[in-house]
Amino acid sequence: MKAFTLFLVLAIAATLAPSILAKEFLVGDSTGWTINYDYESWAKGKEFHVGDKLVFKYPKGIHNVIRVDNATAYEKCLVTTETEALSSGNDVITLTTPGKTWYICGVIRHCAEGEQKIAIEVLPKKLSSGSGPSPSTTSASKGSSFAPTHHDGWMIAIFGILVMIIIV
Ligand SMILES: [Cu+2]
């Protein structure tokens, strides 16, 4: 009976593990996505990894979120027409590529005068010590906005051990 309970708990842990591993960042915390907020300070000290999510929250219709593809566009708040703006008011962006990434608000003057912009450095996905990095997986997920979340075996193992300590 005890073994079955343990199995159940481990199964649940394995299911929950990806959501624990992939972090969700609420941009601006409780302030959300707005003008006159220091997003540079907000991003400072945070570690963003591939697979993590950025959540932009704002009243729908007031702001939007546009990804710009270089530092100059970010500095000068240049919006290219081919970039589609996210405007749901609760925009979730999954970070798929390591490197620098920039987002600005495309509503007139919000970026230029209200500093409504954010630049972040995306670090590669945390590697699991068990299976090691798989180059084929990395290249397969490139170019597609869909990033499957991979399980980190060791995290599940640690979780399992913790559960066993609690149960026994
Ligand atoms: Cu705005």
List keywords for this structure.
168 residues, alpha/beta, Immunoglobulin-like, 4-stranded mixed beta sheet, binds copper (II) ion
What does the secondary structure layout of this molecule look like, with pairings?
Blueprint: H1 2-21, E1 24-26, H2 39-43, E2 48-49, E3 53-57, E4 66-68, H3 71-76, E5 90-94, E6 99-104, H4 110-114, E7 117-123, H5 135-141, H6 153-167
Parallel strand pairs: 1-3, 2-7
Antiparallel strand pairs: 3-5, 4-6, 6-7
Helix pairs in contact: 1-6
This protein binds copper (II) ion.
Copper (II) ion is lined by residues 35, 63, 105, 107, 110, 116.
Bound molecules: copper (II) ion
The tally of structural domains comes to 2
N/C terminus separation: 13 Å
- What number is the mean pLDDT? 79
**What is the name of the CATH superfamily of the largest domain?**
Cupredoxins -  blue copper proteins
Low-confidence stretches: 129-151
Helix content: 25-40%
Q: What composes the largest sheet?
A: 4 strands, mixed
Radius of gyration, taken over Cα atoms and rounded to an integer in Å: 19 Å
CATH architecture group name of the largest domain: Sandwich
Task: Assign the structural class, choosing from mainly alpha, mainly beta, alpha/beta, alpha+beta, or little secondary structure.
Answer: alpha/beta
CATH class of the largest domain reads Mainly Beta
